[in-house]
TrEMBL record:
This is Magnesium chelatase, subunit ChlI. Residues 22-73 form the Magnesium chelatase ChlI-like catalytic domain. It comes from the Bacteria. Pfam families: Mg_chelatase, Mg_chelatase_C. Residues 81-177 form the Mg chelatase-related protein C-terminal domain.
Length: 186
């Protein structure tokens, strides 16, 4: 077995074995719950979260903290975007990416970009650079997180049909790195 395949298999096994840790931020499972109170102390929460290493988290493009949905929200008749519309946006974004990378061997989507491709394709204006610089400094983000944010921002722009990455796309991509935030455990 190739070493890189073996490493990926080991990472997969680690994630599967620790799936419960990945889905709950603390031993009791109620950290940041909207209605239930967490009984864990801040040290216990930090210790529990630190079991997932920073370098492993760095390799995950999107981090989203999900809280339980209340029954009233689930059962409401409020309309939401139809799956067909979302599917169509995704298909269109994938077509844009296929076209973008047709001259690049082994790259078919934004997620597969290397640093050189990111510099060429994920161009942001001065305001975007300032926003990203502030996020990097305030959230103590790594160089790998920087690349991930730019790739996700490019994908958000593609989903919206935008040629350029706007500051809004960048801000949304930064928000999707919630586990990178220093002291997010309070």
């Amino acid at each position: 077995m190739d070493l890189s395949v073996w490493i990926l298999v080991e990472i997969y096994r680690y994630v599967v074995q620790n799936a419960n840790r990945a889905t709950h931020e603390c031993p009791c499972g109620f950290y940041n719950h909207p209605t239930r109170r967490c009984i864990c102390g801040s040290y216990a929460v930090q210790k529990y979260i630190s079991k997932i290493s920073g370098p492993l988290l760095d390799r995950i493009d999107i981090h989203i903290e999900v809280t339980p949905v209340e029954f009233n929200e689930l059962s409401s008749h409020q309309s939401s975007e139809k799956s067909e519309a979302v599917r169509e946006r995704v298909i269109n974004a994938r077509k844009v990416q296929e076209q973008r990378f047709k001259k690049h061997q082994h790259i078919h989507s934004n997620a597969q970009m290397r640093a050189r491709n990111i510099q060429e394709i994920c161009i942001i204006d001065e305001g975007g650079r300032h926003l990203l610089k502030m996020a990097m400094e305030r959230l103590n983000l790594s160089a790998r997180a920087y690349d991930r944010i730019l790739k996700v921002a490019r994908t958000i722009a593609d989903l919206e049909g935008s040629i350029e990455i706007s500051n809004e796309h960048l801000a949304e991509a930064i928000q999707l790195r919630s586990l990178d935030r220093e002291n997010w455990t309070g």
